[in-house]
Specification:
The complex is a heterodimer of chains A (about 260) and B (about 850). Helices cover about 30% and strands about 20% of the residues of chain A. Chain A is built from 8 helices and 10 strands. Chain A is globular, with a radius of gyration of 18 Å. Chain B has 5 domains: about 110 residues, no CATH class; about 120 residues, Sandwich (Immunoglobulin-like); about 260 residues, MetI-like fold (Orthogonal Bundle), CATH 1.10.3720; about 110 residues, Apoptosis, Tumor Necrosis Factor Receptor Associated Protein 2, Chain A (Sandwich); about 200 residues, MetI-like (MetI-like fold), CATH 1.10.3720.10. In chain B, helix 5 packs antiparallel against helix 6. The longest helix of chain B is centred in the N-terminal third of the chain and has 34 residues. Classes of the chains: A alpha/beta (about 260), B alpha+beta (about 850). Chains A and B meet through helix 2, strand 6 and helix 5 of A and helix 26 and helix 27 of B.
Chain lengths: ~260, ~850
Amino acid sequence: MLRIENLTKVFPDGTVALKDVSFEVREGEFLTIIGLSGSGKSTLLRCINRLIDPTEGRVVWDDIDITAAQGRELRHIRRQIGMIFQQFNLVRRSTVLTNVLSGRLGYAHPVFSLAHQFSRQDQKRARAALERVGIPEKADNRADQLSGGQQQRVGIARALMQEPRLMLADEPVASLDPVLAHSILQYLELLNRQDGITVLCSLHFLDLVHRYASRVVGLKDGELVFDGLPEELTPQKFKEVYGEEAEMVTVAGTGQ
Amino acid sequence: MTDHNRDDNGESHRPDMPAWLPAIFSLIIPGSGQFLLGERARAIGLLATVLGLGALILWQGTAALWAPLAAIWLWGAWSAYQTAKGRRPGMGLPFLLGFLILYGVGVAVTDVRPQRLISGWPAVQPYLRALTEPELLEYPTEDLVGSVPFQVPCIDPLPEPSRSPTEDPRLTTDVPCGEIGDLVQVTGEGFFPGVEGEFRWVNPIGDVQRVIEEGQQLTFVPDEQGRFQVTFRVPLAVPLSRLPQPGETQTHAIRAEQHKPYGSLEPTRTLDLVLEKIGETIALAFMATVLGLIFAVPVSFLAARNLMWGNPFTRGVYYVVRTLLNVVRSIETLMWAIVFVVWVGVGPFGGMLALTLHTIAALGKLYSEAIESIDPGPIEAIRATGATFPQVVVYAVLPQIVPTFLSFTLYRWDINVRMSTVIGLISDAGLGFLVIQWIRLGDLRAMATAIIAIMLVVAILDYVSGWLRERVIRGTPAGQEASPARRYAVTAVVTVGFVAAFIWSWNVSRINPVELVRGAPAGLQMLRDFAVPDILTRPTEEKSVRATLPVPCGSGESSTPGVSGPRVNLSLSCGDVGDELTIRGHELPPDRRVSVRWALSSSAYLRIHRDCCTTDSTGSLTWRTTIHPLMEVDPDAGRDEPGEVIVTWTEPIGGLQFSEPFKEVVRLSAVTLLMALLATTIGTVFAVPLSFLAARNIMGTHPVSRAIYYIFRGIFNLWRSVEPMILALICSAWVGPGPFAGVLALGLNNIPNLGKLFSETIEEIDTGPVEAITATGANRLQVLMYAIVPQLVPKYLAFILYQWDINIRMSTVIGYVGGGGIGQFFRIQVQLNQYDAAGMAVWAIVLMVWSMDYLSAKAREQLT
């Protein structure tokens, strides 16, 4: 169980990205975070695995205070938290296999891994992960030769290598077209259902939220303005999160 | 290598062939096994590598280097075996070995001796110390000089001295004369009280030297009445060979000097000169840029593919202009400066012409590329409105090209400033001339002043042109246009300023078109010799026929001419000086230029009529002349035998051979390429670690690391403004002239250049992967290896190749100032008027620059 307690983040330039945000995530949930660009979604996700250090507040996971962890302990926490990104964040000039293997760095030998040496087991695991996301044949391609959807699948495979218990997804489909968006989210759904991985995913499109989320939190200007089930997200509530001028947009092609 | 290839190769390997077969093939001829397996590129690469490196080792002659070559050969066989087995071995090992050989040869031919860095350190120290104490300001001084004659040695009677003592201040000696080593007591009166002064000894020729007593410079301090008394020994002041004969004496003089500073600080004469030359430097760059711009614009239209592609004629023009631009561009400005020294003489004008010519070629190419990249969309759109052709040009074409042209011009102005600071190393133009002159005079502090001035000029103008360039590209933001009145005022001021600058620069550059015309024959002749270098020669042998001619008659026997074979007949068998003589040759080679010589029997030639005449088609020769006075037999002058008339011609023997200059140029080209390689390596090795210290994002926000960042950035920028030519001057003092000095200078120049490019690359890395790898729980080193290094390596390689390219260009000129390589050869040949040998060097440079340009462009393409 993940507990966000009074989380506040003020950037050095004075921008207040998060204001006293608190909520809980239960094991096995598919939680989506909605909000305008700049409402603090990315900052919130990054505070969980400490890519960004919060100014105040705590993130507690299974009674471990992530915000207090340092060095090796922090790395051990991080390796249990997978993360995928809007821009995929692959090393574009490395091969797909190397990108996937890099997800294992938290477990790999700290010296041998510098020379790109991974155990046979890890190699197998990487191929299996690629198999699972449906692109085993791309293992030796350079990452930048892949299409956007394929790159995001590599991103998922990299996260899978961590054998995560928690998956952070920062707008994973915002750079993809609607059909690909569904296929990526279906992978996340699969991981959520089959492997029981808790998923925290920020999303833009309401119909995707309705289709995949088991719970929704809404952020506005860094403040938590909604916390509830997808069904509770009425047009009224939606306007509260997104502002008066917002209109509901749907994504064409509703998966299955 | 992409995956695509790999799949192809996997299919093309033949399972029916035993794996050892291609291995055996590769063992016999490198690459043949790979060829058999269908890996053509690898096969050719391997063969070319082994042959090329083998030739290099053979040429250089270090036997130890055969070992890595053999290893490459064996690796070829092994890899053929592996490939046949369906595996694909990496190329790391052969690359490593290949570079080992290249470095081995490079270190040997460029004469790299690191110990000289240490042993030569004392020699370079004065240079570095001088750089910290330039001559800027000094107090004017009030001078008092008293002198008294002194005769060495004493003779009896002592003659009147040939110099007279000064009246006031007065200097007297206790004795009027003395031997070397004798003590002499000097008394002074009427000097500045309390101000320290120095003694000088002036020898009979007027050379002044310091008076040294026990290793110390001898000084005096007068008392309150301005009096002092000092005793010292008579020094040896004339060379031993010029000491007076016994019974003679020479008048020397003892001088006491005092310099009392007064008033306020004034610029030194050095500073005055430097300031004047700064003006000249800037004027040259300005003139060259403006003239270059004026000529480059029309040229660029002729060199723009999209404008000239219409019909075969214009296409032909396009190709000719493009080729010319490329040839002119690949010859460095400094080499053009040498050409123009021959053409219009030493001075700013020649320097300006060299800069202008190179500018035309460089800008012509950049402009034409700008024209080629015009977007046809706006042209179409404006034409669709019914606009006329001029309207289309003004509204659709000019707005697209003017900012680019301006930006390129400013960029070139920047380069021209840099070049005009060093063009003085060749010609009397700009600051570089002061540097080289003061180095020759050994006035290091003055030299340092000029070098510092160069650095400042380059750094400041670099900044100014960067700022202007940015403004030109950005343009005026919308809504911020000034009022019309103000705009006109600004335009007027800029125009007037420009015209004033132009007139001033014209005067400073001492432009003299007459000189250009007058020197044209010499210049064009030189260019023609450059254009047709003699690569091949045939060795020749001189042949001759002769006839004896006694003058006057009876002074000796005349020879009896033969009747067949090559022979020479004279119309007179003997005669007197001035008699008409017809020289006839028979059965000589037809249509050949021959020389006629008047010769003594002792075979000392008196007079030669070189290539005076030509034989006709039957091989006969007729030449009318008069008997030369020196043919007269004159026992008093040692000419007791009758002289001879000799007709000579040359006949080629054997086949064509490469000429000596050609062989030398080939050797020096290899040296030059290796110099560039070593310099790039030095630059890279130091720049890679330093670049991290100069990267803003790596150094973070901690005050200490931020300070380090600023320090390194600052050092890089300042250091970069020291031209490699200046570094070469200092390096040749450090490690002695030669290729090593060149390598060192280029390497030292590469460190800040690459360091700056590298650190900018680090600052531009994509932070996404860094974030992603950090999120997996990786430690810092792992993040570096997996997220940062893969992003940096290809860009670093591209920059290294680019720098190598520049180094090749630079190493063609660095030899002028003691850097060795082909530049040195070029300069020497020009000084010897051997223009065809110099031309060969030019062609070698053009060839090298082009091929390396092409190769590195290809390689860079692969990397991005």
